[in-house]
Fold:
Amino acid sequence: MRKQERRAWICLLLVVALLSGIGLFTYRFIKSGGEWATFYGNSQIYTDGVINRGTITDRYGEELLQCTPDGFNYSSDYETRVATVHAVGDPYGNVSDGAISSFKSQLIGYDILNGTYDTTANGKKIALTIDANANRTAYEALAGRTGAVGVYNWKTGEIVCMVSTPTFDPAYDPEASADGDSSYFFNNFIDGLLTPGSTFKLVTSAAVIDNMDDREAFRFECDGTNQVNEREDSSLSDVIVHGEVNFREALAKSCNGAFGALTREVGAKTMAKYAEKAGLTEPVEIDGIKTAAGSFDFPDDNEVKLSWAGIGQADDLVNPCAMMVYMGAIANGGEPVQPTLIRSATFLKELTGGKSLGRYLDSDTAAELKDMMKYNVTENYGEWNFEGMDMYAKSGTAEAGSDSPDAWFVGFTDDADAPYAFVVWVKGGGFGSEVAAPIAARVIRSLGTAEE
Amino acid sequence: MDNYRKRRLIEIDTFITEILSFSENYPELAVHITTVFRWIFVVLAAYILLISIVSLLSTRATPEIWGYFMVEDGGNYPITHWENVIGRSRSTDIRIPLRTISNNQALLIRRSEDKWMIKDLGSMNGTKVNGFRLDPEKRYIINPGDRIEMGGTVSTITPPSLEETRNNRFMRRLDKEPVAPWKILLAITAFQVMTMVQLVLSMGTDITASALISIVVLMIVMWAYVMIFNTMGRRGFEMEMIAFFLSTINLAVTASSDPSAVAKELVAILMGLALMIFMCVYMRDISRLRKIKPVLIGLSVVALIINLVFGTAKYGATNWIKIGESGSIQPSELVKLAFILIGAGTLEELYDKRNTIVYAAFSLFCLGCLALMSDFGTALIFFATYLVVSFLRSGDFSRFVLTGVAAGAMGLIVLKFKPYIASRFDAWGHVWEPQFMDDLGYQQTRTMSFGAGGGLLGLGAGNGSLKYVGASNTDLVFGFVMEEWGFIIAVLAVLCIATLSVFAVMHIVAGRSTIYTILACSAATMFLVQTMLNVFGAIDLFPLTGVTFPFVSTGGTSLMTSWAMLAYFKAADMRRDASLAVRKED
Structure:
């Protein structure tokens, strides 16, 4: 009988197989349970394929959307709906990064212990970090033009304003209100890839600060035309004759000729490295939502194209959110905080700050850039436009193919109770400092004013 | 009087409706009760199952000693089985390391008290008893004290002395006792009562009186069973506790998905329990087992042929026979019981080539029939069991025949099912991909989605939604249990099946005959493979084959067979006075 006894161990192999399978499934259950449970086939939480529970509010509790078994209840205010739809999302998933789809499991209230069990069947309430009032203000300020406004607290990482236009009213049939044009669903702030224009000079400047010890001695004679290797390149010309400028003045006056020369001095390799260091070539992650990743081409065998790339033209493409985070980096001594859209544990966050994304710039470099951005404001944009704010900024006017250039305004404020980094982009808006700067000022001023 | 009666009936009816509408009238309170119950269910289940599992796995029987084999100038070997191989090989039970002895020299079989039989296994130098040379392949009765000559040595069998017997019994008394069933019984009862309350809360007036009464009957039968056999001196009830618990889940799952079918499930449990008791008692005597085999082969062949001729299709497989208006049985489920018994054999039978051929032929017949019925899942279960059993059975010749038959059968199955398998395999491992998730992977994605929705604690019996998906209470029952009872209870149910198998393997060292060893191991194989196919199929680790989860899946024949199969595990339970399938010790 001993033979049979020994051979019986083969049954244990089957036991091991059974337990291994259960082990593998347990791992998958822990890892993907939330995804499975929130699958649209789960009729506990979907009615006719549409999520049936959960509420989304802004940071002050203003209700933006309530999901019920009878359908969606959006805010009763039209402007609130159109100004927040890209943050909130729409029932049919047209807005790909909306809170409805991105934070589904939080909305449903899935957790591994209870699954989708919910005593009220009303789901959970998610407070977004956005300020609905600021969103409305930004929407108004964009005044029907295509654009994007993003503002975040560079200490806590909370995105307080996120608006993208053109937009649509989700309370009505989105297909109809968008006229079949899918650009309405597109969130320029998250998914956009745009020509940065002169705002990119803040990246070139960082490269100059780190790599040109004699930058104090830099002088450039701007005659409105531009010389590359003694040959005139009219395409790089400035409209205005700046005269003799140093590094600091070159940024304040946004002198293309001077920055072309600086770019050539720094070299293609270093420029590529700094675009990467500034976080512009990687997607930014916002609570699991990934932004588009920018891309650049700094050729080392074409000085004209290299010069263009150094001033934010040529093939340069940035994502507005990534640009905003770079502003956060300069504001926060070189270490930006990761942006977030879900408001949680605010007390601790305000005390300790948000999650760091690591070091983008040396603190000295950040300090010098900050100083130069202040100089931009005092010399060029005018402090009086930003009354009551400690403003640091850079404008941009990007040639992106359309008749009128795109207007940019990027920067941050450094007030103890208002540490905001921002990005404003208006397609075909014209001059950045004239068009985009007032929008930034107006939105920042509106922040928190709806607070009781 | 008539009027009074009528009024009473109306009163009772109103009262019942009132109870059933509790959750309608007090929805918030009902939800709060469920919220608390979910925790208690998990705690009770963990208590019931872990206590039973630990008891099964921590108690081990000391082998009984039936006699001594004394080799002249060689030593004194205790005989711990009813069937023993004497020889030179390391794998023999009584090993005489002499070159003149064959690897497998002879079989020594205990018939009854002080009655032994010996059979020469075709040894090189032969075996002599009292000077008489044994004919190989023939059995001879011998008595203690007879001279057994093998390869030049002389041995005798001596009965254990009274003192030794007493010592052995004393040792066996020192073995850890199986856990007492009372606390577990109370816990299961609490679980059952709470299940009824929960079903009323969740389903309201949709639940039927017969469904609730069925649970009460199960509870009463459970107590009666334990009390009766406890009075008769039996001590081990863990396996039955596990089976009663899983059966309770079965009734709850059935109540949630199809309340009118619960009574049928109860009948299946009762029939299965009766069959199990009968089988346990019947199997105590090996000679009865040997005699019943040809009968079972005949019955199985007839059942499968009837199935082939009169069978009706359900979910692609023609494995059902309709009885009357609404009844139907699955003959292949019952054939499982026979298949296990026919594959098992005493040590003597294992050395008999004819026996092996009969088993191989019968297996081939079963697999062929299942192939014709397109019952791929059951065919796989039979085939896996066949492979394990043929491995357990010994001999080079047998292995040769068995492997050949196995390969041939496998080829047949694959050929037969080719188009059907191919489509199942397409979605396998890819059910979450868009082209499959609402099509070939529909059942699996729903199983995982609703299952995950249950979290660790479940939504509460009756609250699930997987029940609206086809075959949810049979093929997808793992997901059903996950959704309504939670991941913990679902996994515990799987652990129960694993435990029964580990228990069977652990206890064969004290086994009396290989027939019990093989019975337990093939029953374990069947349960394991069945559970794997059911669970892994539903969660996309295997292609979905559509077999039942033992005890838990809705389905009368399968449930009854699961209970009857328990007899094979009980027969391997050699703990002192534990099992109903083993005669009581003095």
Q: What stands out?
A: The longest helix of chain B spans residues 27-58. Chain B has a mean pLDDT of 87. Chain B touches chain A through 68 residues (CB under 8 Å).
